[in-house]
Specification:
Layout lengths: L7 E3 L8 H10 L5 E3 L5 E2 L2 E2 L1 H7 L9 E2 L1 E2 L4 H13 L4 E6 L4 H4 L11 H11 L6 E9 L5 H10 L6 E7 L10 H10 L4 E4 L5 H10 L5 E4 L1 H5 L3 H6 L8 H21 L3 H11 L9 H9 L3 H23 L1
Parallel strand pairs: 1-2, 1-11, 2-5, 6-7, 7-8, 8-9, 9-10, 10-11
Antiparallel strand pairs: 3-4
The structure holds flavin mononucleotide (FMN).
């Protein structure tokens, strides 16, 4: 049996894991070695205002944050690296994983993977920044799962902090099953610390990966941590059961704090409702089904708050009766 624990990294999720979410998660749950920001990119020659706000040191105090960049070439890498240094970061993650066609078809994210020359120019530019330690987040390839095998010798030539591999190809987006076999094959040729990412949703899932690949440097979890924000803390505590009355009370507290912060930063009730509905796309799928459905039907803040209170009450009751 493996007794050591693996480190858990919170995956970047554009539209979900902004500075507000990250700091609240870190404060109320913790158990995360690093929170990656959604990608920072150059758009029409400039940085986006929301990205600048998201990586600002004042918005990230006390949280182990790694800013992520989405460069197309060496020039963009340098501009983004300078920005991160100006914001006092010493780590940077390079996105070679985004499968979104408008990104990938313009040679960014997973669109870089079939082009070793372009990847090499980007990696070569990292050498100009000894003060930044770079990691790479990637997929198996864009439409060929062997892209990563061709890139491995190149990646090995750079002193990267680590590589995170999401073992799907870009064209799969998030459909189909991540390939454990392809991850293992990459692990055999990659000499850099390696992190696994993809479809981890339970403490058992983390443990299985750790047992399968004891040499792993960690696991990165995205949607699984939106579904169960307590997942990393439960793993650290050696608790395989994700839900208990006390966890449901803490989830309610987390939800209410999130609600208050979203309300304080939304421009009006309809924006607040849009943001809440987006959150629940991935949030707490294990909550009682009927109450979750009613909550999703709420069209104004007052009925949303009522529906949320009912949901947590009935979840609490269900957990209490499971305990009996
Ligand atoms: C809504 C959404 C937004 C995402 N945004 C980013 C991003 O900004 N940068 C990135 O590298 N990956 C992004 N991803 C991919 C995730 O980081 C992660 O690799 C993917 O969800 C698989 O991990 P999971 O199964 O643990 O969620 C995003 C995924 C989703 C679903």
């Amino acid at each position: 049996m493996t007794t050591s624990v693996t480190s858990i990294h919170f995956a970047p999720l554009q539209g979900y894991t902004d500075a507000m979410f990250r700091s609240l998660h870190n404060e109320l749950w913790g158990g995360i070695a690093a929170y990656y920001t959604p990608f920072v990119r150059i758009e029409k020659g400039a940085f986006r205002r929301k990205d600048l706000a998201d990586i600002a040191p004042a918005a990230n105090v006390g949280v182990p944050v790694v800013p992520q960049m989405l460069p197309r070439d060496a020039d963009e890498l340098c501009r983004l690296a300078d920005l991160f240094i100006d914001n006092r970061y010493t780590r940077a993650d390079i996105n070679m994983a985004c499968p979104f066609p408008p990104v990938a078809l313009h040679g960014r994210g997973a669109g870089l993977l079939p082009h070793p020359d372009a990847v090499e120019r980007i990696l070569e530019a990292t050498r100009r920044y000894p003060e930044l330690s770079f990691s790479v987040k990637m997929r198996l390839g864009w439409d060929d799962a062997d892209d990563c095998m061709r890139l491995a010798p190149l990646l090995n030539d750079y002193s990267l902090h680590h590589v995170t591999l999401h073992p799907r190809i870009g064209k799969m987006q998030y459909k189909g099953t991540p390939s454990i076999e392809a991850f293992e094959a990459f692990g055999e040729v990659c000499r850099l610390p390696l992190i696994y990412n993809g479809d981890i949703v339970s403490v058992g899932g983390i443990t299985r990966l750790h047992e399968l690949f004891p040499w792993l440097s960690g696991v990165m979890i995205g949607r699984g941590l939106l579904a169960a924000p307590q997942l990393a803390a439960a793993y650290a505590a050696g608790d395989t059961r994700l839900f208990s009355p006390s966890v449901v009370s803490r989830l309610q507290h987390f939800h209410n704090a999130l609600y208050d912060r979203l309300q304080a930063t939304s421009q009006g009730e309809s924006q607040l409702m849009l943001r809440l509905h987006a959150l629940w796309q991935y949030f707490l799928p294990d909550a009682p089904r009927r109450e979750r459905k009613s909550l999703l039907k709420a069209r104004d803040a007052a009925s949303y708050r009522r529906a949320a209170a009912i949901l947590f009450d009935s979840w609490h009751e269900a957990c209490n009766s499971d305990e009996d």
